[in-house]
Design brief:
Helices cover 40% and strands 18% of the residues. The chain is an alpha+beta fold. It has three domains: 2-157, BirA Bifunctional Protein, domain 2; 171-265, no CATH class; 267-426, no CATH class. A hairpin with a 2-residue loop joins β6 (208-217) and β7.
């Protein structure tokens, strides 16, 4: 069992409101309400619980953050009854020191992984603060003990890559900046990526895009990022929001640092993803839609970028479970965007069936035989060029832009590759 978050706040109405709204939508239900008013019908309402808890906070209370809010997250494979979840919540609160406090327990079922939220007060009826010294450490010790007692799957087996609930950016709901901030925090915590193009491929499912901007102030050049809400087609639907207006951790330097760290993190994931793509391509999908469908069966999403002439200039494979996005060129020379462009231009010829280039059809994953040995001496330099071209083209993949420069970059790549090959032949 994992503690997703323990928070202290002064906004009791906000903490209760978040959970009661889930109840109203049928996405949550109340498991337990300790020391709180219950109506004659046996119901608990937002108004009654709020009034009840507020009345228990002394007016002369010096503690500003009087509200305790946490969530307990069993492993997704755990199927626990309401009775067992209630028992776990009670023992957790008692051991943490909140046994005599008023608190309410909600079970959320709005995502595939059922979990519980608990709202309580951090001060007692005398205004004295509940001991929160080493609270997170003690909380971890308590959940570890509960796992052993009830035979639960340990929290250590719950991957840090697990995504919470993230909705698409909806400009009609207002507070766009807050929506963007929440989406970015979840995405940046969950995914590994090595370029803005790969980040854009991830963000596209949430109707969001990132663009790099270069400015000059008093003769000094500055690099920055802006985030742009989009529609389902990728077209801009709102004014770009500068990273500095969103908060820490989403600016140019932070994202650059994240991309550098990701380069090591993705290495062990590449062979498995490459193998899935290879096996899928060896089924000879006739259309991009068919490729997308078959990859989804393998647990992969694919984002394909085209210029106005219909040429594929970028392709990114996303494993949402592992939390990684990889441009095709990062899988190897034979997986760059131009290879897929060539295939879908003439599906009758499938280069992925060529065993001299991609290895035996019966090759095992642990052999990593997706690239022929003859390519190994050239693959690294070729990939660097492929990654460069894809990263350049992915800087802004929104279909509203002019793609002529992408085509020009493509031609420059071809000329560079030609020169590289000439030099190799001379040597």
């Amino acid at each position: 069992m994992r503690i997703a978050k323990i928070s202290a706040t002064g906004n009791l109405g906000g903490a209760l409101g978040y959970n009661f709204k889930k109840v109203e939508k049928g996405e949550a239900n109340i498991l337990l309400a300790a020391e709180l008013y219950q109506s004659k019908e046996g119901r608990y309402t937002m108004e009654d619980v709020l009034a009840d808890m507020e009345a228990l906070i002394p007016k002369n209370c010096r503690t500003k953050k009087t509200v305790f809010h946490c969530s307990l997250n069993p492993h997704p494979d755990e199927k626990l009854s309401d009775e067992r979840l209630t028992q776990i919540a009670k023992e957790y609160m008692e051991t943490l020191g909140y046994g005599n406090q008023p608190y309410i327990v909600f079970k959320h079922s709005d995502i595939s992984r059922e979990h519980i939220h608990i709202v309580s007060l951090r001060v007692d009826s005398r205004g004295q603060k509940i001991n929160d010294k080493f609270e997170k450490r003690r909380s971890k010790q308590i959940t570890d003990a509960l796992e052993r007692k009830f035979g639960l799957i340990p929290g250590s087996k719950i991957t840090h890559r697990e995504m919470g609930e993230v909705s698409k950016i909806d400009t009609t709901k207002g507070n766009i900046k807050k929506q963007v901030a929440e989406t970015l925090r979840s995405v940046l915590k969950h995914y590994e990526f090595c370029s803005l193009g790969e980040l854009n491929a991830i963000l596209s499912i949430y109707n969001l895009a990132v663009e790099e901007v270069k400015t000059e102030f008093r003769g000094k050049k500055y690099d920055g990022l802006v985030y742009v809400p989009t529609d389902d087609k990728g077209d801009k639907v709102s004014t770009p929001i500068h990273a500095s207006d969103i908060g820490r951790g989403v600016g140019y330097t932070a994202v650059q640092n994240r991309m550098q760290k990701s380069k090591q993190a993705i290495k062990p994931l590449i062979p498995a993803i490459r193998n899935k793509v290879l096996q899928t391509m060896r089924t000879s999908p006739k259309t991009e839609e068919e490729l997308q469908q078959r990859l989804e069966e393998q647990g992969l999403r694919v984002v394909i970028r085209k210029n106005e002439g219909g040429r594929i200039y970028g392709i990114t494979f996303i494993d949402d479970k592992e939390g990684v996005a990889l441009n095709g060129s990062r899988l190897g020379k034979g997986y760059a965007a131009n290879v897929f462009n060539g295939y879908f231009s003439n599906p009758t010829h499938n280069p992925f069936l060529d065993e001299t280039q991609y290895g035996s059809l019966s090759a095992r994953l642990d052999q990593s035989a997706t690239v022929h040995p003859s390519q190994l001496n050239t693959e690294e330099s070729d990939n660097l060029v492929d990654e460069l071209i894809e990263d350049m083209a992915d800087g802004s993949f929104l279909s509203t832009g002019n793609d002529d420069w992408k085509e020009a970059a493509w031609q420059r790549k071809l000329r560079k590759l030609s020169k590289v090959n000439i030099r190799r032949r001379k040597h």
